[in-house]
C-alpha cells in the first residue's frame, strides 16, 4: 500500500539492525520529518522532490536540522 508519510519505523529498524550508515529517503517533505529521521539515527536525509523553491525551502530545513 502507498504511504503518504516517510517510513520512520523502517529507518529506525535499519539503524538498529545494520552496522552501516543509513540514509533516509522517500516522502520527506518537511523539516520536521527530516529532523525526526536524524533523531532516529539516520546518517543523512535525502530531500529530493520536496525542493521546488531551493532557497526558500532549504532555509527552512537548515533552521530545523
From TrEMBL:
Keyword Cell membrane: no
Membrane-traversing stretches: none
Superkingdom of source: Bacteria
Claim: Nucleotide-binding is one of the keywords in the record: no
Protein name (Swiss-Prot/TrEMBL): N-acylglucosamine-6-phosphate 2-epimerase
GO biological process, one term: N-acetylneuraminate catabolic process
Stated family: Belongs to the NanE family.
GO cellular component: cytosol
Catalysed transformations (reactions): an N-acyl-D-glucosamine 6-phosphate = an N-acyl-D-mannosamine 6-phosphate
Lineage: Bacteria, Bacillati, Bacillota, Bacilli, Lactobacillales
Pathway: Amino-sugar metabolism; N-acetylneuraminate degradation; D-fructose 6-phosphate from N-acetylneuraminate: step 3/5
Protein's organism: Streptococcus pneumoniae
Reported function: Converts N-acetylmannosamine-6-phosphate (ManNAc-6-P) to N-acetylglucosamine-6-phosphate (GlcNAc-6-P).
A Pfam family it matches: NanE
Swiss-Prot/TrEMBL keywords: Carbohydrate metabolism, Isomerase
GO molecular function: N-acylglucosamine-6-phosphate 2-epimerase activity
EC numbers: 5.1.3.9
Amino acid at each position: 500500500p502507498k504511504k503518504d508519510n516517510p517510513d520512520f519505523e523502517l529507518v529506525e529498524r535499519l539503524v538498529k539492525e545494520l552496522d552501516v550508515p543509513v540514509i533516509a529517503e522517500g516522502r520527506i517533505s518537511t523539516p520536521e520529518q527530516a529532523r525526526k529521521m536524524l533523531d532516529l539515527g539516520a546518517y543523512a536525509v535525502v530531500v529530493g522532490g520536496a525542493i521546488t523553491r531551493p532557497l526558500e525551502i532549504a532555509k527552512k530545513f537548515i533552521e530545523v536540522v
